[in-house]
Design goal:
Oligomer: single chain
Largest sheet: none
Helix content: over 70%
Membrane topology: Multi-pass membrane protein
Keywords: Cell membrane, Membrane, Transmembrane, Transmembrane helix
Distance between the termini: 47 Å
Order of helices and strands: HHHHHHHHHHHHHHHHHHHHHHHHHHH
Strand content: under 5%
Number of strands: 0
Number of helices: 27
Protein name: FUSC family protein
Family: Belongs to the YccS/YhfK family.
Subcellular location: Cell membrane
Length: 643
C-alpha cells in the first residue's frame, strides 16, 4: 500500500512538473550516429598523435548531434549545415578577442544580442544563434590551435560528419519521412474522431492534431520551397494533407452533438493513413459507413469521401499548392522582419546580452579558471525560445550535478588515451536519447561528454569537476537574477497579450465565416493559423506552470480561458460546417453581436491582471447555429474581466 506524503512534505506542483521526464521514443538511428560521429574524430586524433585536434572535431560533432532533429533528409541538410556555418563564424570572432579583456566582453555581448534576436525567427535560426554564441564564448575563453582557420575547420567538419551519416540512407528512404508525417496527421485526426464523445479527452487530442498538422505542413512546404520545379510526390502529399481539412472541420460539429461517432469512421481514416504511409492504395479497403441523416453526419460523410478520393487519385490537383508555398515564404519573411523590428525580439536579445555581458565582465574581474563555462551556462539557460528561465536554471544545476558525478568516475578511472574512444561511444548516444526527456536529462548527458573532451584539451583530470560546478552555479545565478527576477517582463505581457490577439483573430474568423466572404481557402487558412497560435499559447502556459508562485499560480488561474477560446473557435467551425450542409445561416445582427462581445473580451484580457467572473447573456434566436458559439463566448467572458 502506497502512503501519501503529508501536505507539508509533498513537493510543490511546479517542481514535480519540472522533474517529471517527458515520454518520448528513442531515435535509435540518431543514437548510432552520435556514437560514431563523436568517437571517430577522437580515434583519428589519437592515431595521428594530435588528440587535441580530434577533441575539437568531436566538439563540432556534438553541435551537429544537438541540431540533428529533423525527419526529412533535405531538412537535415539545413538544420545541421547552416548552424555549423554560423558556429564557425562564432569561433572566428571569439579567437579574434581571446585574451583581450574588455574588448572580449564587448564583442561577446554584441554576439549575444544578435543570437537572441535571430532565435525568434524559427527552429533553424534558433540553433544557429545558439551555436554562434556558444562557439564565440569558447573561442574567447580557450586557447585554440593556430592557424586561425584550423579550429573552425575542425569543429565544422565534426558537425558535417553528423550530416554525412544522417544522409547515408537518403537514396533508400527518400520521401519516407514526409509520407510518415502526413500519415501521422491522419492518425491524430482518427484519434480526434474517436474522442468526439469525450469532453475531457477531446481538447487535448485537438491540440495533438494541430501539432501533427503543423509539423507535416512545415516539413512538406519547407521541402518544396527548396525543390526546384514541381515535385509530383510532394504535390500529392500536400494535396493529401489538405484533403483531411474537411474531416478536421467536421470534428467540432460532431463534438457539440455529444454523441460518439460509429467506430467505422475513425477506422476509415486509419486505413487512409496506412495507404498514405505506404504509397500503395491498391490494398485500401474502407469500411462501409452508416447512412448519413443529420447535417453533422452528412458533413462527416462528405468529408471522408473527399479525403478518400484524393488519397486514391493517381494524380494530384496542383491548384492551391503554390498558394501554400507563398504563404510559407510570407511567414518566414514576417518572422525575419519581426526579429529585427519587434519589441519582443529586442527584449529577448537585450536580456541575453546583459546576462552574457555580466558573465564576461565577472570572469574578467575575478580570476576564474576556464571561465568560459560561466557564459556557456548562461547561454543554455537563457535561450529565450527554449522555455522557462527559472525551470532551465533549476534543471541545469541538477543536471550538472548528475553529469559531474558520472564524469568524476570516468576521469578518475580512465586515463587519457585510446580508452577515451570506447567511453565516448557509450556517452555520446545518451545525448540524443535523453534530450527529448527534458532539459535536465540533456544536461546530465552533455556534461560528462564536454568534461571528457575538456580533459583531453587541458589535461586537468578530476581537477575540472569543482570549478565546473562553481561555474555552472554562477551562470545559473546570473541568469536567474539578471535574466529573470530583474526584468519587468511579466507572465501577462508574455502570454496575456498573445491570448488577446487570438481572441481578436477569433472575432475576425467569426465575421469571415458568416459574412460575405465566399473564399473557403481563406477561411481554412485563417482557422489553421488560429489553431497554430492557440497551440503556441498553450505551450507557453504549460511552460509558465513550471515556474514557482506567483507566475505558476497565475497561469493556472488563466488556463480555463485558453480552453474557452479554443472552444469558441471549435464552435464557430462547427456552425460553419452545419450551414454548409443545410442549416439556416445566422443573421448579420447575430454575427455582429458575437463579434462585438469577442472584441470586448480581447480588451478585457489585455487589461486584466486578476481573473474574476461576471454573468453574461447573449440573446439570439433559439435553435440558431450560432447558439453554441454564444454559449462559449458567454462562458469565456465569465472567466476574464479586468478587476
Amino acid at each position: 500500500m502506497v502512503r501519501e506524503l503529508p501536505i507539508g512534505l509533498a513537493p510543490p506542483d511546479w517542481l514535480v512538473r519540472n522533474l517529471r521526464p517527458r515520454p518520448a521514443p528513442v531515435n535509435w538511428a540518431a543514437v548510432a550516429r552520435a556514437s560514431l560521429a563523436m568517437a571517430s574524430p577522437l580515434a583519428a586524433g589519437f592515431a595521428a598523435g594530435q588528440p587535441a585536434l580530434g577533441a575539437l572535431a568531436s566538439m563540432g560533432a556534438l553541435n551537429g548531434v544537438i541540431g540533428d532533429t529533423a525527419d526529412a533528409y533535405r531538412m537535415r541538410v539545413i538544420t545541421i549545415a547552416v548552424p555549423q556555418l554560423t558556429g564557425a563564424v562564432g569561433v572566428i570572432l571569439g579567437q579574434l578577442v581571446f585574451g583581450q579583456g574588455w574588448s572580449a566582453v564587448v564583442v561577446v555581448t554584441l554576439v549575444a544580442l544578435v543570437s537572441g534576436m535571430i532565435s525568434t525567427i524559427g527552429t533553424v535560426a534558433s540553433v544557429s544563434g545558439l551555436l554562434l554564441l556558444l562557439n564565440c564564448v569558447v573561442g574567447a575563453g580557450l586557447p585554440l590551435p593556430h592557424p586561425w582557420w584550423l579550429a573552425p575547420l575542425l569543429m565544422t567538419g565534426g558537425g558535417l560528419l553528423v550530416l554525412a551519416l544522417a544522409l547515408l540512407a537518403w537514396p533508400l528512404r527518400a520521401g519516407v519521412p514526409e509520407r510518415a508525417a502526413v500519415a501521422k496527421a491522419y492518425r491524430r485526426v482518427a484519434d480526434l474522431l474517436d474522442d468526439t464523445g469525450d469532453d475531457d479527452r477531446y481538447i487535448g487530442t485537438r491540440f495533438d492534431v494541430t501539432r501533427a498538422l503543423d509539423q507535416a505542413f512545415d516539413l512538406i512546404l519547407g521541402h518544396r520551397a527548396r525543390h526546384h520545379g514541381r515535385s509530383e510526390e510532394l504535390t500529392r502529399l500536400l494535396a493529401q494533407l489538405n484533403a483531411i481539412t474537411p474531416v478536421v472541420e467536421a470534428a467540432p460539429a460532431v463534438h457539440l452533438t455529444g454523441r460518439p461517432l460509429p467506430p467505422e469512421v475513425p477506422r476509415a481514416v486509419r486505413e487512409l493513413a496506412d495507404a498514405v504511409e505506404t504509397g500503395d492504395t491498391t490494398r485500401l479497403r474502407l469500411p462501409k459507413l452508416p447512412l448519413a441523416l443529420t447535417e453533422t453526419e452528412r458533413a462527416v460523410d462528405h468529408a471522408l469521401k473527399h479525403t478518400a478520393a484524393v488519397v486514391t487519385s493517381p494524380s494530384a490537383d496542383p491548384r492551391g499548392i503554390d498558394e501554400h508555398t507563398v504563404a510559407l515564404h510570407v511567414r518566414a519573411a514576417q518572422a525575419t522582419r519581426n526579429a529585427v523590428l519587434s519589441a519582443g525580439s529586442w527584449r529577448y536579445g537585450l536580456r541575453l546580452a546583459v546576462c552574457i555581458g555580466i558573465a564576461q565582465a565577472l570572469v574578467s574581474l575575478v580570476p576564474v579558471p576556464r571561465s568560459y563555462w560561466v557564459a556557456l551556462t548562461v547561454t543554455f539557460v537563457l535561450k529565450p525560445d527554449f522555455g522557462s528561465v527559472f525551470s532551465r536554471a533549476l534543471l541545469r544545476a541538477l543536471g550538472t550535478v548528475v553529469g559531474l558525478a558520472i564524469a568524476a568516475a570516468i576521469l578518475a578511472e580512465v586515463p587519457i588515451g585510446w580508452w577515451d574512444v570506447p567511453v565516448m561511444m557509450l556517452l555520446a548516444p545518451l545525448v540524443p536519447a535523453l534530450t527529448p526527456r527534458g532539459y535536465g536529462f540533456q544536461t546530465a548527458a552533455i556534461t560528462p561528454v564536454i568534461l571528457l573532451l575538456s580533459d583531453i584539451l587541458n589535461h586537468e583530470g578530476t581537477g575540472l569537476l569543482l570549478p565546473r560546478l562553481l561555474d555552472s552555479l554562477m551562470g545559473c545565478g546570473i541568469a536567474l537574477v539578471a535574466g529573470y527576477l530583474l526584468w519587468p517582463e511579466s507572465w501577462h505581457t508574455r502570454v496575456g497579450d498573445r491570448l488577446a490577439d487570438a481572441v481578436e483573430d477569433t472575432a475576425v474568423y467569426v465575421e469571415t465565416a458568416f459574412g460575405t466572404e465566399t473564399d473557403p481557402v481563406r477561411r481554412t487558412r485563417m482557422r489553421r493559423r488560429l489553431y497554430r497560435d492557440l497551440s503556441t499559447i498553450r505551450t507557453e502556459f504549460q511552460r509558465a506552470l513550471t515556474e514557482p508562485p506567483p507566475t505558476g499560480r497565475r497561469a493556472a488561474a488563466w488556463w480555463p480561458l485558453v480552453v474557452a477560446v479554443e472552444r469558441i473557435v471549435d464552435a464557430t467551425t462547427a456552425a460553419r460546417v452545419r450551414v454548409h450542409h443545410g442549416a439556416p445561416p445566422p443573421s448579420s445582427a447575430e454575427v455582429h453581436q458575437v463579434v462585438r462581445q469577442l472584441g470586448e473580451l480581447a480588451e478585457g484580457v489585455r487589461e486584466a491582471e486578476i481573473l474574476t467572473g461576471f454573468p453574461t447573456h447573449l440573446t439570439g434566436p433559439a435553435g440558431s447555429v450560432l447558439e453554441p458559439v454564444r454559449q462559449e463566448v458567454a462562458a469565456a467572458r465569465a472567466i476574464a474581466t479586468p478587476h
